[in-house]
Amino acid sequence: MALHNDFVILVDENDNAKGTMEKMEAHQKGLLHRAFSVLLFNDKKEWLLQQRALDKYHCGGLWTNTCCSHPFPDEDILHAAKRRLKEEMGIEGELDKAFDFIYKASFKNGLTEHEFDHVFIGQFSDTPNINTQEVADWKYISLSDLKEDLQLHPEKYTPWFKIIIDKM
């Protein structure tokens, strides 16, 4: 039997829940589901990025926002974002909703991310305590350096993170 966190919440274009589905099945079928992305900034206004673990089911080794995931069925989205931030980066703190957006990205392994992504922001100026099963590395980077690197090496970043950068 699948674990509780192996399911995603299927939603419509207005983020109304339509049911749940096993996570990999939803990604194989490219169905719209609820997700969140967390972006933390330090006191120098640098962005805290993570490099996804190399063995992630997609985008392994790519750089992205501080953390991202899917809420459990019946879990509040803000609670899910705080829970996952603690699990991936060892960070606890306050988060504020920034915006949300829908995106769809297909990957070479046949999976498709089609997400209604809730973006949260917060502040953190310390050293994260990363979960190495989820995160390969981390760094703080200024917006100007990030934009320059995105221009030179867009392939090093996740598709949803590029959208978040444009919207910020």
UniProtKB/TrEMBL annotation:
State its Enzyme Commission number(s).
5.3.3.2
Q: Name one Pfam family in it.
A: NUDIX
Q: Which UniProt keywords apply?
A: Cytoplasm, Isomerase, Isoprene biosynthesis, Magnesium, Manganese, Metal-binding
Give the organism the record lists: Niabella ginsengisoli
NCBIfam families registered for this protein in UniProt: IPP_isom_1 (TIGR02150), PRK03759.1 (NF002995)
Instruction: Name the Gene Ontology molecular function terms of this record.
Output: isopentenyl-diphosphate delta-isomerase activity
This one is known as: Isopentenyl-diphosphate delta-isomerase
The Nudix hydrolase domain, residue ranges: 31-163
Can you tell me which family this protein belongs to? Belongs to the IPP isomerase type 1 family.
- Identify the PROSITE patterns for this entry: NUDIX (PS51462)
Biological pathway: Isoprenoid biosynthesis; dimethylallyl diphosphate biosynthesis; dimethylallyl diphosphate from isopentenyl diphosphate: step 1/1
Show the CDD domains listed in the entry: NUDIX_IPP_Isomerase
Q: Which InterPro entries match?
A: Idi_bact, IsopentenylPP_isomerase_typ1, NUDIX_hydrolase-like_dom_sf, NUDIX_hydrolase_dom
PANTHER family, per database record:
ISOPENTENYL-DIPHOSPHATE DELTA-ISOMERASE (PTHR10885)
